[in-house]
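Section 4.2 – Deliverable D4.2 (structural model, holo form)

The reporting period included a commitment to supply a predicted holo structure for the target in complex with carboxymethyl coenzyme *A. Inputs used:
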Amino acid sequence: MSEPAYHPGLEGVIAGETAISTIAGGSGLRYRGYAIEDLAREASFEEVAYLILHGELPAAAALKDFCSRLAAAAPLQGEVLDFMRSVPRDTPIMDFLRTAASALAHFDAEAVDTNSEAQLRKAERLLAQFPTVLAAQRRIQQGKEPINPDPQKSFAANLLWMLRGEEPSPQLERAMDVSLTLYAEHEFNASTFAARVITSTLSDLHSSIAGAIGALKGPLHGGANERVMEVLQEVGTAENAEPWIRQALAEKRRIMGFGHRVYKEGDPRARFLKPLCQELAVETGHEEMENMAEVIERIVVEEKGLPPNLDWPSARLYHYMGLDVTIYTPLFVVSRVTGWAAHVIEQMENNRLIRPRSRYIGPEPRPWTPIAAR
Ligand code: CMC
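Output (structure tokens):
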């Protein structure tokens, strides 16, 4: 039997088919055929989530029903809130979301039902529940009472409302909405692939989402947006940006928020978000950080040819919105659950167990050694 080709990190391997999104030609991103720039500019996150989950943009009545279903599923059961209060306060929110994906299954009557309609209903419930969990856990950590979801508000406004307890400005609502749209889906990235692998064993949706959250958490994936902010805080001033980045590159440090496995010419999501980030920086008095970021970006591109990815501007956007760094990666979860769930459903509808091979690099065959002779 001839050896199959080996691609470390599955780089360049087509590991399955999808109708959900494409990184068209390695430079653009489309959800269900629509360019993300059009979606981010024109659509609400609710429309985008519907599109990703249901395959088509919703007409007005379908959107209204979808929003009503989300609003109905958003409040948490008392038992879930009690459990949240019992978790140590310093538990990272990302870790808690992974736990929550699992725990919420115990309160979902359809948890083990893997037919497509049930999966869709569960996906909508998780989409509705994650913002409430995120905001409630953050407030419990701060010693505050969780704020109930407001069914009259948009998804983005409600999330900000539950986090902060004040009406968000239209600028903040829009910034959150756009960032959710840009984070919603990204074909066979590591967390989505993890979800598909779990689904391919015919496991349930909540298990796949819990696994995906575990994969997203790492700093090479979703965890990068929190590390980006740590870097910017370490740099401190625009004046310090150039010496800092030159030294970091000389030390061969990995600069979080730069580079991408697929986008070698630049991440279209980062390109779209940059001007919005600049606008918000002016509105919120964060020009210094924006200047700092600009210097770092210029030098990383010049010296390493590495363009920024989405996490580079999104970390700043969240900072300008007054959000705490501990919720940046959890915000990615709140949005990406749409993409993950759509992939889980797609995988289940046309399943083949994902079971690749490995190249063996261990010891040659050797004789058994009895314990007394070792
Ligand atoms: N800073 C410095 N050098 C880098 C970076 C970076 N951010 N990214 C890649 N390189 C270098 C790397 O050191 C290597 O150089 P050499 O060939 O001299 O050893 C070369 O570029 C290729 O790197 P790689 O790690 O083999 O490339 P990859 O395709 O596996 O990398 C990546 C993709 C995203 C893991 C990587 O670019 C990285 O670690 N970036 C920083 C983390 C980050 O921002 N992740 C977010 C990804 S996008 C959105 C998301 O998923 O959240």
